[in-house]
Amino acid sequence: MDKSYRPEELEQRIYERWEERGWFAPQGDGEPYCIMIPPPNVTGTLHMGHAFQDTIMDALVRYHRMRGFRALWQPGMDHAGIATQMVVERLLNNEGTSRRDLGREKFVERVWQWKEESGGQIARQTRRLGASVDWSRDRFTMDEGCSAAVSKVFVDLYDEGLIYRGKRLVNWDPVLHTALSDLEVLAEDEPGNLWHFRYPLASGDGHLVVATTRPETMLGDSAVAVHPDDERYSALVGQEIVLPIVGRHIPIIADDYVDPEFGTGCVKITPAHDFNDYEIGRRHDLPMYNILTDDATLNDEVPVAYRGLDRFVARERVVEEFRELGLLEEIEDYTVKIPRGDRSHAVVEPYLTDQWYVKIEPLAKPAIEAVESGRIRFVPENWSKTYFEWMYNIQDWCISRQLWWGHRIPAWYDTDGNVYVGHDEDDVRQRNDLDKDVVLRQDDDVLDTWFSSALWPFSTLGWPGQTESLDEFYPGNVLVTGFDIIFFWVARMIMMGLKFMGDVPFREVYIHGLIRDQDGQKMSKSKGNVLDPLDLIDGIDLESLVAKRTAGMMQSHLAPKIEQATRKHFPDGIDAYGCDALRMTFSSLATTGRDIRFDVGRIEGYKNFCNKLWNAARYVLMNTGSLDEGDLELSPADRWIRARLDETTRAMHRHFAAYRLDLAAQAIYDFTWHEFCDWYLELSKPVLQADESSPALQRGTRRTLIETLEAILRLLHPLVPFITEEIWQQVAPRAGIEGDTIMLRPYPESDENAGDEAAIADIEWVMQFILGIRQIRGEMDISPGKALPVLLQHPDADDRDRAARLVLLLRRVGRVESVAMLEEGTEPPAAATALLGEMRLLVPMKGLIDVAAERARLDKQMDKTRAELAKASGKLANENFVNNAPAAVVTQERERVAEFERTITQLAEQLQKLDELA
RNA sequence: GGGCGAUUAGCUCAGGGGUAGAGCGCCACGUUGACAUCGUGGAGGUCGGUGGUUCGAAACCACCAUCGCCCACCA
User: Fold this and answer.
1) How far apart are CA A40 and CA A693, in angstroms?
2) How far apart are CA A291 and CA A549, in angstroms?
3) Whole-model pTM?
4) Which of A380, A583, A614, A663 is spaced 20 to 30 Å from A718 by Cα?
5) Is the CB of A678 under 7 A from strand B?
6) For strand B, which residues in window 479-498 of chain A come within 7 Å by CB?
């Protein structure tokens, strides 16, 4: 092995081998285990969130695969209708052409072409992340199979009356010219105004005052509403208003919706351009005046002067005209919620159009029940609340989009406008007995991207076919995803899964946090704070990073700021940390919280960990060259590390079961570094290097070294797959293990008989001993190379026994020159002291030790111990504590007090001695 | 307006009714035959505030403060 760990050299090579050998496909005949990848958008590239998510899923899949499950991690991508169409349209714009120039067919062809390039990029990234997905099953939401699933679901739901077409108010994106679902609209607070208008009564007898945030919609008003119990206006209900500018007579109506406390208590009603007004309009059978075009300019429904105006221009003009008419009462500053499309960021209009809807309530009911009953469990549990909250108030789902990229809606119209639904035109004709001469035209619209995503858990397994894969892998075990798509995706998969498969799509939903930047900001292109996971793996120099972050920006004026921030945060660019370090970082960040600040500082520590493991392996390999057969004796250190390994193994299983990758990462990190490397490797050296250790003992240690390392590699493999594979290839033959790859070896299981109290007690004693000596050395500034003589004062039988048996460890690891007993009654020499239970370790001073320094050191210990003692004895002095606390706690407290008292006595004696010396 | 979450060392975060933890950073020492991407020792916290429950609260409860997120039709 090379002297240092170089991830760039090994990661790609190893992945290629895994893939070539087909090891990502489900193996063996164990119980199935299945995770569906949340398909990334073909648009763009994988970001930190994907890398994080992939790390979690890969760890889970590898863990289960190693445990003998037939593990499937199903890969694939999403066609991402709007997002993809926008990207390709932008490309076309740059080429000086447009979607409309190309026409539908050519445009869609162009998108497919682009999808190949972009999808390839994502697949490459996924491979670099080490994801053990079964590429042979790679799917795309618009491939043939998924499309067949979409078609079947649409037709079936339609036949059952659960899909319908209707003219209603929808969220209309006037830039993209498409309807959006409620979820795709984001309401943001923006500063605006509240305009107060006078509406004259038709009787000529005064006016009412209405307030509005959208003056231009008054051109479409069809009523003014007041609260039925509002005495101020009860006499006016039933009378009419003359709508200014328009001249239309509109009624004054009474409706509960109106809040008499707000404004004047009068509300203008525009049924065709406001969701509330729409409902009121329906209740009161009001006419609906649609005054907008698809572009949100004013149409011919309005007075000539306003026709063709942009809605915002019209707003100003309406206000101006009210002012001129003397009907403008007041303009208030007011914060308004502006609905914007999540993709285009355009201000969305409520707009009357024909759209397709899924009647959601019959689907939502069983989906709610599935979570209530525990058939699906959210991890952490809290998220089920979020789920319920949305599901209880769910609205019908608008599934049609006026786009070209997506699944075309399987509906056809005849020339009379009758609609027929079927899998294709032939199917439609057959179902409806339509003659060949009836002209049919397919619906131009496509389906919401999430419609096909909702089918992902079974469409990828071959549905609507009855496949073996479906039998085997549906339902999946766990869905790993972010909370941001619980509504978009999780809820809809549950509904569709229950409806079409008769079972939940997965049993657990593991919700992870969002990756944010070092300041807690969401990573976004426009903020210029995105990190490409591959840059953390391969490294990137500062100039390239700046260039990357400022390239192709929509708002180029932000570039200087981004450049400045980038130079500040990454003055030297980003080092190459390798995939394993990145993954270990993600794992350790996978806590239960909501958002995760990604601090580049942390990844370095995990690269060091990899290097540590690498070098530990080198040491083990160097020392296990000759694993000869023969008698084998395990030393206390061997038995101790085996016991500790078992405890760690137990912890790993526990943490995986609870989806606590952070705790798993920490447990194995601590064991590897702080127990195996810091202690066991050091303790092994005396055995292997000293002449006095027997061949059997040496064999025992060699075996323990190699076996423990091999187990560590397997414990770590789901988290850091590459380095563990690379080392394992060297280690396995030494350990006498057959097998081509670590990824198909069994995950370590704990062993009930691994506990070894005696060995643990021995080694803990050794550790305390050595720590005591090191502390003296460190604080007394004694050179680490200087071997120290140690006298044991007041040793008991165990101490004497251990000192005799384990002296080699003390000498070599603790750099102790000699260990001698101070006979009882003998006056101890002036010495620095460490305490080990009842026993005192004395390091005679003889010029080695500075009396003042030792004094200061002991004083410090004394202060600490006295403080502890005060606390503990205070507790025991409280009779409530003694009477009420559990006996074990009281006993423990008494023991602590005794211990502190002993320590204080000993320290006092030592201080006394120093005084005598001075 | 509802709902959820966070507040622990300089930074990033675990923990959890009885002894305050890690990594990074910081200070000192160190070329010990795996590793300077390292080793050894050390400094550093009244666990956001107030009150309550309890023998005992950093942890449980209530309220408050600050920050954040989600949902919602007050024009």
Assistant:
1) 59
2) 43
3) 0.94
4) A380
5) yes
6) 483-484, 487
Q: Which of residues 761-800 of A touch strand B (CB under 7 A)?
A: 771, 774-775, 777-779, 781, 783-785
Collect all residues with Cβ–Cβ distance below 8 Å to A251 and sequence separation of at least 6.
A223, A224, A238, A239, A240, A241, A286
A374: CB within 7 A of chain B nucleic strand: no
Three-state secondary structure of A594-645 = CEEECCHHHHHHHHHHHHHHHHHHHHHHHHCCCCCCCCCCCCHHHHHHHHHH
For helices A636-657 and A757-779, angle between their N-to-C axes, nearest 10 degrees: 100
Angle between helices A7-20 and A579-589 (to 10 degrees): 90
Instruction: Name the maximum alpha-carbon separation found in chain A.
Output: 120
Residue A889 Cβ under 7 A from any strand B atom = yes
Structure tokens at A575: 């080092």
Residue A506 CB neighbour total at 10 angstroms: 24
Bond from prior residue into A380 cis (ω within 30 degrees of 0): yes
Percent composition of chain A: helix, strand, coil (DSSP 3-state, to 5): 50, 20, 30
| H-helix segments, A231-359 | 275-284, 311-324
Q: Which of A270, A297, A267 is nearest to A197 (CA)?
A: A267
DSSP-derived 3-state class of residue A206: coil
Between CA A236 and C1' B2 the distance (Å) reads 35
For every residue of A424-451, DSSP letters joined together read SHHHHHHHHT--TTS--EE-S-EE-HHH
User: What single-letter DSSP state applies at residue A255?
Assistant: -
Reported ipTM: 0.95
Closest CA to A197 of A185, A215, A184, A182: A215
Give me the pLDDT at residue A918, please: 64
CB within 7 A of strand B (chain A, 332-361):
336-337
Q: Do the Cβ atoms of A591 and A651 come closer than 8 Å?
A: no
A581 CB and strand B closer than 7 A: no
Q: Within 10 A of A72 (CB to CB), how many other CB atoms are there?
A: 28
Q: Residue A96: which residues within 8 A CB-CB, separation 6 or more? A: none
Predicted local distance difference test score (pLDDT) of residue A204 = 86
Question: Are A172 and A344 contacting, i.e. CB atoms less than 8 angstroms apart?
Answer: no
At A59, list the tokens: 């760890």
Q: Which nucleotide is nearest to A618 (CA to C1')?
A: B34
Return the pLDDT at A692.
Answer: 80
Please tell me the total number of residues recorded for chain A in this structure: 918
Kindly give the parts of chain A with pLDDT less than 70: 554, 593, 626-627, 848, 918
What the block records as the tokens of A49 is: 């969130």
Which of helix, strand or coil describes residue A189?
strand
Give which of A726, A738, A681 is closest to A704, Cα–Cα.
A681
Strand B proximal to A894 Cβ, under 7 A: no
What gap in Å lies between CA A494 and CA A474, rounded to an integer?
12
Q: Which of residues 81-110 of A touch strand B (CB under 7 A)?
A: none
State the Cα–Cα distance between residues A722 and A741, nearest whole angstrom. Answer: 11
Structure tokens, A361: 């309530």
Amino acid A706 CA to nucleotide B28 C1' distance, rounded Å:
36
For A355-408, the pLDDT digits (tens) are 999 999 999 999 999 999 999 999 888 899 889 989 998 989 999 999 999 999
Using DSSP, state whether A387 is helix, strand or coil: helix
> Straight-line distance from CA A653 to C1' B25, in Å?
33
Round and report the angstrom distance from CA (A118) to C1' (B14).
39
**SS3 label, residue A139:** strand
The bases of strand B with some atom under 7 A from any protein CB are: 2-6, 11-15, 18-19, 22-25, 28-30, 32, 34-35, 37-43, 54-56, 68-75
Interatomic distance A188 CA / B70 C1' (Å):
13
Residue A314 and residue A306: Cα distance in Å, rounded?
A: 7
> Measured at the alpha carbon of residue A315, what is the angle toward residues A311 and A318, in degrees to the nearest 5?
130
